[in-house]
Amino acid sequence: MSLSIGIIGLPNVGKSTTFNALTKTQNAQAANYPFCTIEPNKAIVPVPDERVDELAKIVNPQRVQHCVVEFIDIAGLVRGASKGEGLGNQFLANIKECEMILHIVRCFEDSNITHVEGRIDPLGDIEIIELELLFADLATLQKRIDKLQKDSKAQKGANAMLNLALELKAHLEENKPLRTFAKRDSDEFKALNKELRFLTNKEIIYGANVDEGGLESDSHFVTSLREYASKNGAIVIKICSKIEEEMIGMEDSERAEFLATLGCSESGLEQIIKMGFAKLGLICYFTAGVKEVRAWTIRAGDSAPKAAGVIHKDFEKGFIRAETISYDDFIKYKGEAGAKEAGAMRIEGKDYIVQDGDIMHFRFNV
After folding, report:
1. Which of 45, 22, 94, 96 has its CA nearest to residue 297?
2. What pLDDT is attached to residue 42?
3. Which pTM was predicted?
4. What DSSP element (H or E) covers 320?
5. Is 198 helix (H, G, I), strand (E, B) or coil?
6. How far apart are CA 126 and CA 109, in angstroms?
7. What confidence tier does 126 reach under pLDDT thresholds 50, 70, 90?
C-alpha cells in the first residue's frame, strides 16, 4: 500500500515546480504558459522517517527501504474542464487515480509570471477548480442515476442505492463537495464511491505557494486561504516552490540549517507527507532483519493478519502469530535480542490491532 497524491491547480501556479521540488527531480517541465504539462508526471518518493534510520543503525542491514508516496503532477485545470475545455476530461480522469489531492494555490504577486485569469485571487482560483470537480461528479452521478432508475424494479437493493444517489445529487447541486456529505460512512456510499471515485470526496491539502518573503509571516492571501480551509475542514501548508527547488541536492544537515534560517523546521515535502498520512488514517510498522529494514504502510486500525498481507497475501491467509516489539523498546534494548531478553517482545494473535511504529515478525503456514 502506498499513498498517491495528485497535484492540481490552475495552469501556471507552480504545480510542476512544486513537483520538481517535492520529488527532488527535474522531470516535470516548468514553463510560463498554460498546459505546459499534458501527460501527468509521476514519481515515487521515500517517506522521510527517522525511525527507519535509527533501526538501521542497530540492525546494520544490507538495505533500507522507507514507505513511499507517489506524486502525480496533473496538468492545469481551467474553467469548463468538466466539459472538456483544455483537455479537461483527461485531466479529471487522472485525478480519480489519486487517494488525495494537493491543490496548489498561488499566493504571491509577480508581474513576470502570468496568471491564466489575469489576477491573483486564491479563493477565486479555488472556486474555479472545485466547481469543475463538482460538475464532473454531477455528470458521473447522473449517468449512474439513469442506470439505477432502469434497474430499480429488477435488481434487489437498487432502490436504496438510487435514493442515496439522489441525495448525493441534491448535495452537489447546493455546491457542496461530497467530503461534507453526512452519510459518507454508510455502506451504500462507500460502494458507490468505490465504483465512481468521486473527485469531491477526496481529502484536500491546500498548498499555499508563496514567494521567498512569505514563509516567515502570512500575507493577506494566505490568511484568507487559511480561513476558507478552516471553514471547510481542510488544511493549509505554506510552501515556497522556488526555495524547495533550490534545496534539491542539499545534504540533510545543510538543508536543515537552510530551513532554520527561514524559520522552518520541516520542508514542504515532510509536511505534506505527514499531513497526507494523517488525513487518510495511515500508519507505518517495520520489519527489521540483517537483509533489510523496511517500513510498511497500513491503515490505522488494521489487524495483525491484515498488516501481514501487505507483505504477501499468503502471510495473511496462513497467519499464526506476530512477534511484536514497540519501537521505543527496540531502541531502548538495542535490538530484538535485547528486547526479547528484557521481556519486551510480545506474541500477538489475529485480533491484535497494529500500532504505529511496531516492529513485527510474522509466523504463518500456508
Report:
1. 45
2. 80
3. 0.82
4. strand 319-325
5. coil
6. 17
7. very high
Lowest mean pLDDT among 127-141, 240-254, 323-337: 240-254
**Angle at which helices 158-173 and 122-151 cross, to 10°:** 160
Q: Buried b vs exposed e over 187-208: b needs ≥16 C-beta within 10 Å?
A: ebbeebbeebbbbbbbbbbbbb
Closest CA to 235 of 245, 226, 248, 222: 226
Q: Nine-digit cell at 57?
A: 543503525
Q: What is the pLDDT of residues 317-335, one digit of tens each?
A: 999 999 999 999 999 999 9
- Give helix then strand counts, H and E, for the chain: 14, 12
The Cα–Cα gap between 25 and 20 comes to 5
Give the amino acid at 215: L
Q: Mean pLDDT of all residues in the chain?
A: 85
Backbone angles phi, psi at 167, to 5 degrees: -65, -40
Q: Which of 76, 73, 3 is nearest to 41 (CA)?
A: 73
